[in-house]
Design a protein that fits this description.
Oligomer: single chain
Strand order of the largest sheet: 2-1-5-4-3
Number of strands: 12
Distance between the termini: 68 Å
Order of helices and strands: HHEEEEEHHHEHEEHEEHHHEE
CATH architecture of the largest domain: 2-Layer Sandwich
Strand content: 15-25%
Helix content: 55-70%
Radius of gyration: 56 Å
Amino acid sequence: MRFRQKMLLVMVWLLTLSYGVGGVFLIRQNFKSTLSQIKKNNEESYEMILQSVQLVNFVDIQQDFSSISNTLEKMNTSDSIVGIKLMKGDTVLYQTGETITDYDSQEEFESLMFSRDARYFYQISGSVNTDNTPLKLIILYDITPVYAARDEQVRTYHQIFLLMIVIGGFTAWITTYLMTKPLANVSKTARDLASGNLDARVNPKVLDEIGQLGSDFDNMADRLADNINELKLTMEHQDQFMGSFAHELKTPMTSIIGYADLLRSQSLTGEEAQEAANYIFSEGKRLESLSLKLLDLLMMKKESIKLIPVDMKQMIDNLTMHLQPVYTKKGIMLQSRCERCICYAEPDLFSSVLTNLLDNARKAIDNGGNIMIVGERVQGFYRIRVYDNGRGMPEEAIKHITEAFYRVDKSRSRAQGGAGLGLTLCKEVIELHGGTIAFASREGNGTCVTVTIREATL
């Protein structure tokens, strides 16, 4: 049974119970109150007639009871009085109307309710004191109208009860429909999401608890969709990574196998054999470098690093001083201009980041040029910029520059021994330091790489 049907049944049951119990209680209380009032009126009427009989008996000199009979005849004017009986011992002195039930009683005043022939009566009896044998006065009252009124109330109540159940049931159905409609929307949205429609949303239109549930469900669906899209993107990157990795292995392996087969199957001169061996060695070293960089990349994703206070100016100046002779031989002027600042860093890893950035800048310069490292403190951060006036790169390449195996110029990078993993490693190292890396470049005008890390608070 559906939740909406359960709510409808519960609401109809509660309506039936409350209206049924309440109606029965009210009718019963009204009947008891009316019956009690009728009995009280009848008892007062009997008392008045009884006192009148006693008064007539007191002034009746003849004691032939004819005056009492006349008095009873005159006082029998009420519609509710349907029978009067006056007895002296077992002798009936006066009787009129309905048959009166005789019963033995020693009480001075007695009342009895009974039904006969679908009618209801209230009989009252009492004694009239005389000088000799006391008289017994019995009056029979018809109280059938009270029961008839109750029966009419019950019939009316049943009709109203059925009408209320119909109206209440219809109202309950509308109420349960409006209350459970948001839940049905949540259920439908859940099924749509399960079937693969990640754009399905509840979009609640109410602000109650069920509406809040719908909003929470939409928030969950948003996060789920983001996670799934991120997972799909990760899978795509992994596929690209595996494809690039296979390509990177295939190219040198093809050359190595070719030259090795040449050495194995043909007689070469010493110079040709030396050239083949040198090529096999260089390609082997490139494969080794690729393997080591991949291992470093995997290890950095699994391990945390220990950061210590480092003087960034001293680190950059020392690195610049050691690399200047190598760069000078290639016609490149390497300079640094840095402010002193202490940052938390891992010296070896951060030094490798700077070395990679400088090496990329060197490879981007063809026939001599300039490389400048600028370090400055900016609002609690230390910003390092590496400028070069090399070839630069297109805007589209900047979006992918930190992806594994990506190269702006594949042939030139491979000729220079690049594996396309340097900037990927740089990004991983900088993120481990809680920093950021950004690129700005224009073809023919050089490149600027910006690294930002938080300044240490000592």
